[in-house]
């Protein structure tokens, strides 16, 4: 069966510090991978998606970046965090064979102080 | 700006009542999904609709996709406390399963 994991689950970082969130998928190959950000009680904002290794599409211009060094690994990074980067970050994957259903990781809650 | 607007944003009802949540857009989507999310967890898929005018029923939940594939609704009959959660619609605009945009969310509380 397929599983998705992301870490860390909780992160408290000072303004200006770097960020690295990791996400891995097991049990499938060549998944589409996504990073979303969610404000409390609100919808999800699509940040990045990837259809293959090294292929990253950015939806929102900001100080965040994403990389896909391996087929089932997706990394969200920042060189210098802003207060506005605080939020709940969710990694997700989908396979076209599953008619586009998104499967989400456990989420990473980032607080920038 | 959000591609998909949901209404209402918050809903608090008594157990046994009916409710409808709306998801509207000016864009056309090849498919539209509804998810339910618990606090601190990722959303979980409830249903996918792909054909304009399509209606799907999942026990007490009825989902409808608009004829023009720009809007959708979720109707819950006889709501129960277990229905409490954040309901999210999500649309695939690309048709390739690459770009999923989520709605603004509807937070539902069912009071026993």
Structure at a glance:
The complex is a heterodimer of chains A (113) and B (112). Chain A is mainly beta. Chain A is built from no helices and eleven strands.
Interface with most residues: A-B, 27 and 29 residues
Number of helices of chain B: 0
Mean pLDDT rating of chain B:
92
**Can you summarize the main beta sheet of chain B?**
6 strands, mixed
- What is the C-alpha radius of gyration of chain A, as a whole number of Å? 13 Å
What is the multimeric organization of the chains shown? heterodimer
Q: Extract low-pLDDT stretches of chain A.
A: none
| Main pleated-sheet profile of chain A | 7 strands, mixed
**Secondary-structure element order of chain A, as H and E?**
EEEEEEEEEEE
Helix coverage percent of chain A = under 10%
| Alpha carbon gap, first and last residue of chain B | 36 Å
How many helices of chain A? The count is 0
Determine the structural class of chain B based on helices, strands and strand pairing.
Answer: mainly beta
Average pLDDT of chain A works out at 91
Please characterize this protein's 3D structure.
The complex is a heterodimer of chains A (113) and B (112). By secondary structure, chain A is mainly beta. Chain A is built from no helices and 11 strands. Chain A has strands at residues 3-7, 10-13, 19-26, 32-38, 44-52, 55-58, 64-70, 73-78, 87-94, 103-104, 108-112. In chain A, strands 2, 4, 5, 6, 9, 10 and 11 form a 7-stranded mixed sheet that branches. Chain A is globular and about 40 Å long. The model of chain A has no long low-confidence stretch (mean pLDDT 91). With 112 residues, chain B is mainly β. In chain B, strands 2, 4, 5, 9, 10 and 11 form a 6-stranded mixed sheet that branches. Chain B has a 5-stranded antiparallel sheet with strand order 1-3-8-7-6, with no helix packed on it. In chain B, a hairpin with a 2-residue loop joins strand 6 (55-58) and strand 7. The radius of gyration of chain B is 13 Å and the shape is globular. The relative contact order of chain B is 0.33. The interface between A and B is medium-sized, with 27 and 29 residues.
